[in-house]
Amino acid sequence: MVELWKQGKTGMKSGWWWKRVGMCAVTAGALALSGGLPSLAQAQDFEVTSGDERQQRIVERYMELVESNPAEERHLQSLLFHVGRGQGLNHLIDHYRRRVEARPESLNLHLVLGHLLRARGDFEDALAMYERAVELGPQASNAWLSRGQVRLMMGQRDGALTDFERALELEKNRQRRGEILQNLAELSFAQRDFERGIEFYKRRIALTPGDEYVRRDFASLLLQYRQWEEALAQYDALLRMVGGNTARRAEFLSERAEIFASMGQNDRALESLQQAIGLLRSDNWRVGEMRARMVDIYRQSGELGTFLERYARRWSKGGYDQQMLVADVYAETGQLDEALALYRRAAGRNRRAEEPRQKIIRIYERMGREQDLPAAYRDLMRAAPQRHGYGLELARHHMRMGQRDKALSVLRELERRFGEDSYVLLEIADHYGRWDMSDRAEATFERVNRLDPDDDVVILALAEHYFGRGERQRAVDTWRRLPDSRLGRVPGLARMGEVMVDRGLTDMGVSAYRQALSEAPEDMNVRRGLANALERARRWDEAAEAWNSVYERADREQLRQEARGRIVELYRRQQKLREQMNTWTRALEDQGDVRAGFFLAEAHLRLREFDRGAEVLEQLVGSSGVNDDEKVSALTLLERAYVQAERYDDAIVVLEQLVELRPQLAGELLARMSEYALRASGEAQAVDFAVRSLEVNPDDARAQARVAGIYEQAGEWEEAVRHYRAAAEIDPQAFDLRLALGRALLAQGRESEGEEVLWEVVRDATEDQMILEAGELLLNRAQRSGRLAVLEARWSPLAFRLPVRDAHGRLLLQLYSRMVGPLLVEAHHGDVEQRQLASAGLRDLGGRSASLLLDVVQSADVSQRARALRLIAELEVDLAVPMIARMIADRKEATRVGAIVAAARLADARLVGPLLDAASSAEPKVRQAAVWALGFMPAQRDLLRTLEAMAREESGGGGLALGSLARHGGKEAQRVIGERIEALAQGEPSYDAAQVFSALVESGRGEGEESAALVNLMKDASSPHAVWAARALGRRRSASGVSALWEHYVATLPVPSYAAEEGLRAAMRAGDRERDRATLWQDESRAFDWRRGELNVGALLAARKMQLEGGASLLGVLDNGIVAEALGRTLGRDAARWQKVAMHMLEEELDADVDGAGAAIGGRELATQMVAKMPPGVEGAAASLWRALAGDLNAQDVFGLAQEEQLDEVQTLLALRVAPWPSEFDRQGVSHWLRARLESEHAELRLLTLRVLAGLPGEVVQADVLKPAVLSQLDSAQSAHVIAAAGALAALNAVDALPRLRELEAEAPPAVRRALQEARQSLGAASPKSVEEETPNTRGS
Description:
Serine Threonine Protein Phosphatase 5, Tetratricopeptide repeat; Leucine-rich Repeat Variant
């Protein structure tokens, strides 16, 4: 009866594996019957011949058992175990097909055949068998259950649910009913039908009401789907069930607390934890965990202060664990003295505890108490005498502090204590070498050499020491001892060859490899090493021969493929590949040389000739001259060729053949088939292959993840989530799977669940890259939703783990950087209340982040140190001052300039000394940064003297020292600045005037001799420094200085002094509130590149120059009070002067608004103040013009004054330009009056009228009245008239002028053409029809 059976070599995985897989459309074990068929991932079926009678009887016996009861999963699994998953299963299926054909009415035979087809992944055929089984046995629960299972696997959930419910109605066995109900509940939950799922599970519980494990499974399912209230009800029931079992009650209370915490009910969570703690002995390990969880809850709710108020005093008197928890919270909240006291108390309780002693050291480092660190390290070394690393840390500390003798003493002590440990001595020798103690290093190396002369690690370290010192021969002689080391002769020769090749001694390395090969000709690793060495030596022919030898002797396809690829590459490098391909082609065609065929195919693939390579491989696969191994190799290469050519369907066919030849690899091959099907847009086929893959390896987390990935690419997020969850449960340490699960949950819209999973990855993962990926996802989401503070509360404990992971430090730095930005903006640019709140927020954040920043600033990663320094500065972390001072003093510190820039912000007197030393550095970037930073420091005598001396030495474009000195003010700054101004007045060109005058403004002096010198310079039209002097006068805002500016301005009208204009603009942009030091540092530190550690001095000086130019205010808000008073004093009671100034300001307004000539001086605010200050006697036109500037006269008022001849034509036009237009006025009268001016015989009056019209709203005049006169001006020979006319036509919305504008444009000069184009564009936008009528050529112009 048994034709050809096969048996698997490996045992079946037993247990409730299907529970871990979960309910999903492609899970093999969703239901109890299906359970999943055992995975034989490494099985190799072998034939059972008629001579193996025992095996034959076993298979026949299991066949009988399965046929008698197809519902008994155990028997089916055993049968499959014995026949295997390859040809044995195929033959078994063929056998039962014949049985079914012979007995078409047999229910059990149909069920057995359906089970076997399902096990092979043939779901369609399996479904057909189960359909027939349902017809044959409509009252058989097993038939309905089996059909439901395969429907579930095919994604037909509704049909599966119907079948399972029918099976439940028919099933009488209590245990089987329970299993069906449980799985029905899980399926309902998966479909988000929670009410129905809960009902199913309650019926499941009713079958075995005393089974607490069933209730806990139910509670877990409820928690998974966030059904909090029902989950709490189950835990209440569990608490009633356990009665007086205190351990179990405590366990359930702790789990219930987690539910409350998830619901955000922290008070109830804490209460539940306290109840659980009260049930256990204080020394129970669970008590410590629960207390730590209590701290976490307070932390997540941002109430660590409340925790300290409630528990700090009591827990501080408790046990070691309680003291450590409170100490950690003190450290986290920046209360370092309290933390230090508790860590010391905890260390006193446990003389061998390392953690409190390590944290004491960290706190000393944060507090800058370097003098206390040696004693703390000594205490730690006594607590852990077996750990030499603490001694090395102490030695490194002494070296950082410049205490070389003490560092040497510690290393010698370690030598004595660990004198018999070769590896410790090697580390000590390495430290000697790094610290330029070459004699001590060599002596220690020699000592290790005597201690363990045959240890390969010792030999390699000693040789590396010699080689690094340039003693090549000694290094070679040492490496030559490797064959006699513990490695053994041949491995030693190979290691010697490898090391010599790596060090560029290729000939020696090749010789070592050849010697090893002569002694072990069958060692493939030696052969590979030799071939690689010959390649590196560029001995191409010998390398090809060596790789050929590897190919001929290789017993693994992977090794043959490597050799093939290297040989082909060697031919390509020598430009001989095409020639050799012809040889291989002839050998394949004439002699059927299989080896030549493989090389030819490899060459085509290397040259990206995928189709031609595929043709060769297809020929090999179909050849009768290849054995099974060669056929597998050819198919593997053919798969690669098809995939590279994007022929995915062909690749799937190849993999199907490989499954037949290598059934033990079916899981992996099916996964690849699924991937290719998805690339070919065959989602249904991809799912089918994935299911088959999962059937082969149901307990393989990677197989589950592959299925999840397919669903993810198909956008079926619910299925992806289920499979990722199953994968994560199978392998809890595979954090990449948890990361994928978190992403899938977010994509599905289950944000809180997804973020929780990502948090677990951040907290528990061991790979930094994975932590960073998960953390950055959480960061981005928190920033978008404004939850950075919540994230900080959860992440901050990561900074107190020992050791702190680099990835955690990076994430927290990113978090603090994102929190700082908005606060800085409000602190420097907000209103008073915003500034106060933001400043307080920055202080609080600085206190919370101080511990982490002080840790990171000592890390080995320069970029992270730079980022930490920036945050230390922006958050004003005063605790960092000692560390910053040490970094500035360390000439080898990579972030020394960054530390100097941060010191400028901290402005602590303790930093003055290190900065003065740095200011004398030979390194320009260090010296310049230090000179700049000294300007922010508290004034000290030595500091001022140094800056004064440096300022006197500056020449040319320099100005850093002068600017820093000026910020301190005082007589030193006054002397140097006065000398510079005098030199500029004498015409000495050696100084940068902008920097001198900027320093004068920075010094803050308003009156004095400098003002008189500035006035003289400003009035000297021939001086190149007149403008800079005037700007300085304006910025200083002294009464005499601003008055001098106005005097010079008025005196030079009608063409005012440019210098006086610039000075007045500077005065009007300046305000009363000076920039504080924080804002000044924030602005100027932009010239520092934190990533590169470079201060751009040119950019810094240019920024100061721009501030003086008036592009940006040096002092802040607009305030014209001082300016108006000075102008009033200048004009006095002279009405003519009042009128002259008003006319010029009106002209400036016209230039600024119509011609875009720049901002006008003063504006309406100044005019309003001047009207209020106007003395009696200033009447008539002067008073009217100022009132027009202030907006007190409207256009109708101005027109009335013109008619009364109180204003002349020019005054009226200028006043109309700035006056507001009332809702009712003499529109016709104004229009005719303007037309008369356009027809004037005076060209200047016509031009002024056109310019005023161009700036007026079109609706305030009658366009029809004015257009003819304006159009006539287009024929003017004066370009200015044509330009102004074009603007006026645009203001009048004269669409009918478009043809005329187009006509003029072709022949117009460039400036006129631009004005005509702008007018046409304005009119075209107002009239789409006119645009459509334009010709393409015109439009293109």
